[in-house]
Design a protein that fits this description.
Layout (H helix, E strand, L loop, with lengths): L3 E10 L2 E10 L7 E6 L9 H12 L3 E5 L6 H17 L7 E7 L1 H16 L6 E5 L12 H4 L1 H4 L6 E7 L7 H10 L3 E7 L13 H22 L1
Parallel strand pairs: 3-4, 3-5, 5-6, 6-7, 7-8
Antiparallel strand pairs: 1-2, 2-4
């Protein structure tokens, strides 16, 4: 028996719709915590890492809504993320009290921007940000790190922020990353995947074992924050 249910949904976005998938836990009748996820510059919501994390979250009692937005303009991505946020809040059959936002690569840049904007409106709107393979700079172009980390530096002090990055990520220079962390006011936790690339692949390890490790880090972090509340 599956530990979750999965339904394709259409999220209103101006005159268009965004494709999304809602994963709901079978073991929890009234989930109180939800996570929104989106993909990087390539692919879509069916990227294996996002699917794996969504299923793991739902299997552990959390609602997860992941969506596709293929626009490469960050501002457009942020608008799409807001539309998904509003859609989740409008689902009357759920009483969601805690919402985490996240994504991988460009998707987590959009999530950070949304968290910053929503926190300006309400202190407790976003419970935390999940950043998978944050793209601090394009490969070999480290000068972009200040601009790309602007929203992270703008997150408020109370905001929990989880980074999951590979030690061999060519879009995340370790020295620049460590320097950025010192400037962030938010409550930062970092998990370095040993040998991991930007795609969180590790030579000599199966993709499934890596995904299980990453999923466990994310779920443990969320559960720890829920216990604090």
């Amino acid at each position: 028996m599956d530990k979750f249910c999965e339904d394709r949904v259409k999220v209103p976005f101006g005159t268009k719709h965004l494709d999304a998938t809602l994963c709901t836990p079978s073991s929890v009748k009234h989930p109180l915590t939800a996570v929104i996820l989106t993909h990087g510059a390539g692919g879509d919501m069916n990227f294996k890492h996002l699917v794996s994390l969504a299923h793991a979250l739902a299997s552990n009692g959390f609602l997860c809504l992941r969506f596709t937005c293929k626009g490469l303009n960050l501002a457009y991505r942020v608008k799409a993320y807001h539309a998904v946020w509003n859609y989740l809040k409008s689902l009357q059959k759920f009483t969601i009290k805690h919402i985490f936002v996240g994504g991988r690569s460009m998707g987590c840049r959009a999530a950070a921007a949304v968290a910053r904007q929503l926190s300006d409106e309400s202190e407790d709107a976003v419970q935390g940000v999940i950043s998978l393979s944050f793209p601090l700079h394009p490969p070999g172009q480290t000068d972009a790190h200040r601009q790309r980390s602007e929203d992270l530096r703008g997150l408020p002090e109370h905001m929990p922020l989880l980074f999951v990055s590979g030690t061999e990520d060519n879009m995340c220079d370790r020295g620049l990353f460590d320097g950025m962390i010192k400037e962030i006011k938010a409550q930062v936790e970092v998990f370095w995947l040993n040998g991991g690339s930007h795609g969180l692949k590790v030579k000599g390890r199966s993709e499934e074992s890596v995904l299980d490790e990453v999923n466990l880090q994310v779920i443990t972090w969320i559960c720890k924050l829920r216990e604090i509340d």
